[in-house]
Amino acid sequence: MRTICEYLSVLRLPYNIMQAHENVVKKLNEEFKKVDKAFRESDMRVFGEDSSELFQQLNALRRKQIDIASDHVSLDSTCDLHSTQLNKVTSIAKDTEKQQIPHQQQDRTALAKSFERKEAMLKNMMHKLDDLTQTMDKFKEIAQSRHEEIMNGGRNAKH
């Protein structure tokens, strides 16, 4: 079996190109050996040595996303109540003049209260979204720190 240098010599490439190529191959083999050793010794972990903090942050993100999704569904059902109440106002308008005015006032009051509840729900969702953004930024910071730690062979342990 021929070596790479033997193949290159057949091509009659200049010595410095063959030497450079041989150096690159040698360096790559050394790096692959380091990776193989780290894998054998269980030093190679995708998320670093301690992944519990990272997974705690992922779990916190998931819970916050579920909470916001639940609030969104509640907000949608509140919107459905508004349309039901609007239909009620329209049907009352078809009634006689005497009945129409008191019912419209009650319905407007009910609609105003519903819009106030919806406004409060939206403000609450905005606060939760801000909190989710902060949690995502913290997760990103931890993940980047772990990535740097892994890439530097565990020598960069900043948390």
How would you describe the overall organization of this protein?
It is built from four helices and no strands. By secondary structure, the protein is an all-alpha fold. It has a domain of 99 residues.
Give the termini separation: 50 Å
Query: Could you tell me the mean pLDDT?
Result: 75
Instruction: Give the low-confidence spans.
Output: none
The major pleated sheet works out as: none
Computed over alpha carbons, the radius of gyration is 33 Å
Number of helices: 4
Helix/strand order, N-terminal first: HHHH
The proportion of strand residues reads under 5%
Total beta strand runs: 0
> Which percent bin holds the helix content?
over 70%
> What general outline do the C-alpha atoms trace?
rod-shaped
Class inferred from helices and paired strands: mainly alpha
Chart the SSEs and their pairings.
Layout lengths: L3 H7 L4 H26 L11 H42 L3 H55 L8
Helix pairs in contact: 1-2, 3-4
Q: Quick recap of the structure?
A:
Helix content is 82%, strand content 0%.
Keywords:
mainly alpha; single chain; 159 residues; rod-shaped
